[in-house]
# Entry
Amino acid sequence: MDKQQEANVIQAAEAYVRDKLAQDFSGHDWWHIERVRRCALTIAREEGANMWLCELAALLHDVADEKLFGDEEAGLRELREWLISQSVAGDDAEHIVEIIQTMSFKGGSRPPMRTLEGCIVQDADRLDAIGAVGISRVFAYSGAKGRPVHDPDIKPRESMTPAQYRSGKDTAINHFHEKLLKLKELMNTDYGRRMADERHLFMEQYLERFHLEWEGKA
# Structure
C-alpha cells in the first residue's frame, strides 16, 4: 500500500468512527479518538514505531468496545470486514485487531501488548484517561451510567474480574482508585511514562482538594 492509499484509509477510518460514535456522551466521543490519535503519533515519533499503524489503530480502538456497543465479538467481526473493504493487508489488519482486543483495562486483568505499536496506542488511550481530560471524562462516563459522584459508604474495590469491573457498583471518585491512579505504573513506553507523571500528579492534587471541599474544610 503506497502513501496515498494509506492516507485514503485514514480518511475512511475518520468517517467510519465519526459515524459510529456520533451519539456518544460518555467521554468516548470523536474528540476522545482524536486526542488518542494525536497522542499516539507523538509517542510513535519518539519511539520509532510504524506511524500509519499507530494512527489507524488509534482511530479504530473503540469501535468494538463492549461497554459502548455490547457485543465485542460482533464488533471485531465488523472491524475485520471494514479493514478488508479498505484493502488493508492481512498482517496489518490482524495486527490492528490484536491491538484493539488487548488494549482495554477491564479491571487490570488484560495480557500485555505484544508489539511496539500496540504499546503506543494503549499508552495514548490511557493518557487520555488521566490528568485534566481524564478527570472530566470520568464524571461524564459516571453521569452517563447513572453512577454517583461520591458516596463515602461505597468503598473502592481492590481487585475485580472484567464482569465486576463493568457491574456499575462504584462511584466516580472510586474510579480514580480502581483504575485511573493505577495507570501511571502500567504505561508501556518511556515517553508515555514521562507524559503520565505530570497527569498523575494533577489527579492526586485534584482528589486532595475534592475531599477537603467534601468535608467542608476548604
